[in-house]
Design goal:
heterodimer; A: mainly beta; six-stranded mixed sheet; B: mainly beta
């Protein structure tokens, strides 16, 4: 059974604060690590797909890093805004022919207080 | 921007009834998926579908479940005889051959009474 864990479970920050949260995943049989942003009643929105150890990706004020050797990824949000309030999900894809399934963490629920 | 759509947004059914959840993936995508999230739990993989056949399925996807791509646009999940524990949010996703990104629909909330 693949174990993908995210911490913290929830987080409240003030508008303008920067924040980060963690996703841990198996360090063996790694293929890719996905990050999604999910607002209630909307589709989970794809943020990043990360495949290379040491990779760093950025989209506006959001960035992510990847360490496949130790099995963790950080998501950073710089200068949080109320519209960043959402649940952030990470998902692990293992290597293997024909294996496309994603194994998700439980998510980090971020609330940005104006 | 193209998006995955799902209907209905909410389905209520009686235990033992059959339900069909519908999805329209992004038009040039070739890989299709169903996931579900039981309230308070993680999103779980159910099944992946490519080239008109199931390519991978989880333990959850037993004989009560089936998928179909009846035409060039729809992708359906059928639950033959629903159980209380099938109550969940069901997500459809798709991706193109050229990318690893799976694009998700907004989900169908299934409530089994």
């Amino acid at each position: 059974i693949l174990n993908v864990e995210q911490s913290p479970q929830s987080l409240h920050v003030q508008e303008g604060d920067s924040t980060n949260f963690t996703c841990s995943f198996p360090s063996s049989n790694f293929y890719a690590l996905h990050w999604y942003r999910w607002e209630t009643a909307k589709s989970p929105e794809a943020l990043f797909v990360m495949t290379l150890n040491g990779d760093e990706k950025k989209k506006g004020r959001i960035s992510a890093t990847l360490n496949t050797k130790e099995g963790y990824s950080y998501l950073y949000i710089k200068g949080s805004q109320p519209e960043d309030s959402a649940t952030y999900l990470c998902a692990f894809r293992r290597s293997g022919a024909g294996s496309y399934q994603l194994t998700f963490g439980k998510g980090t629920k971020l609330s940005v207080i104006p | 921007e193209p998006e995955v759509t799902q209907t209905p947004s909410h389905q209520v059914t009686q235990m033992g009834q059959e339900v069909i959840l519908r999805c329209v993936p992004i038009s040039n995508h070739l890989y299709f998926y169903w996931y579900r999230q039981i309230l308070g739990q993680k999103v779980e993989f159910l099944v992946s579908f490519y080239n008109n056949e199931i390519s991978e399925k989880s333990e959850i996807f037993d004989d009560q479940f089936s998928v179909e791509r009846p035409d060039g646009s729809n992708f359906t999940l059928k639950i033959r005889s629903t159980k209380l524990e099938d109550s969940a949010m069901y997500f459809c996703a798709s991706n193109a051959a050229s990318t690893d990104t799976q694009y998700f629909g907004p989900g169908t909330r299934l409530t089994v009474l």
